[in-house]
Amino acid sequence: EYESGSQTITSAGLLTLNHGLGREPRLFDFYLVCTTAEDGYSIGDKVTANMNSSTSGASISNTYYFTSTQIFLRYSSNSSAFVNGAKSSGLSSTFINSNWKLVVRAYA
To answer: Exposure pattern of 79-106 as b/e (b: 16+ CB <10 Å)?
Structure first.
């Protein structure tokens, strides 16, 4: 099992992580950690990161790929890289990148 530290979310940025598993991962888990209260979420709240979603006609696609040594994630070029349901209402909400950190888990 591999777990990254908290990663900065930068629109259109490329994240490169050395997983150290010794082979290609079989499963992945991506989640967001709230660092600034937003949409009813409190600091420290965790939500599953929706890698591909859409809201108000905008399509958001975060793409990841991997090798036996590294995980790469290209963040969406949209100003908000992730869309999730607001905790306070359940309505679709584009998260402000700087209010969240991404954590990646990989399993071999």
So the answer is: ebbbbbeebeeeeebbbebebbbbbbbb
